[in-house]
Structure formats: structure tokens, C-alpha cells
Amino acid sequence: MILMRHKFHAKPTEIDGIRFHSKKEAAYYHDLMLKQKEGIVLYHHRQVPIALPGGVTYRVDFLEFHSNGTVHYIDVKGHRTKEYIAKKKLVEALYPFTIEEA
User: Fold this and answer.
1) pTM summary value
2) pLDDT tens by residue, 13-59
3) What gap in Å lies between CA 65 and CA 33, rounded to an integer?
């Protein structure tokens, strides 16, 4: 069996039976769950698809709904690729929200 490595050395990590692309994303999820228990975050969704022109889909890592009424679109990034930057700009040009990076 050949083990493939991620090109940016991200290590897939599992928490609560959920597989994350990296340790950083898993750690963010862990902190998010603590915020949910504290009541800061009401609930969240993972890997939320956002439609872009040309049949392209951008997936934001977390969509968070906070108890103060705010909504946050979060992408956990270790490395910002040119493709990511371009898609993020396109999403923000087409939709009335910004994507926050963690």
C-alpha cells in the first residue's frame, strides 16, 4: 500500500469520528466545540458548499452561528495557494459576506 503525503505536509486528523484535512483544522474544531458548550457559538456546519460560476464549488471549512446573532464563514488555512486566493476573492465579490481565515 502506498501512503500519499499532502503537498503542504498537512496530517489528516480524526476527532469525534470526523476526519479533518489537517491538525490545524481539527484543533479549530475542538476549540469550536468548546465555544459551543460555553454558549458563544449556537451551532455550526462543516464543509459548506458555495456555488461559483462555471459549475465550480468552493467549500468553506466552517459556517458558525454565534449567540450574539453574527454568522462567520471560516477557512482554516496553513498555506494560502493562488487558487484559494482567487476563489476567496470571487466568493466575496459575488456574495454579501467575507471569509475569515483561521
Assistant:
1) 0.85
2) 888 888 998 999 999 999 999 999 999 999 999 999 999 999 999 99
3) 12
Judge whether 78 and 10 are in contact, CB under 8 Å: yes
> Residues in the chain, how many?
102
Task: Tell me the three state secondary structure of residue 44.
Answer: strand
DSSP string, 42-78: EEEEEEEEEEEGGGEEEEEEEEEEETTS-EEEEE--S
- Could you give the CA distance from residue 61 to residue 57 in angstroms, rounded to a whole number? 13
Q: Residue with C-alpha cell 476567496? A: 88
Percent residues over pLDDT 70 in the chain:
90
**Grid cell for residue 69:** 446573532
Alpha carbon of 70 to those of 31, 40, 49, 62, 63: distances in Å? 18, 11, 19, 14, 11
60 within 8 A of 74, measured Cβ to Cβ: yes
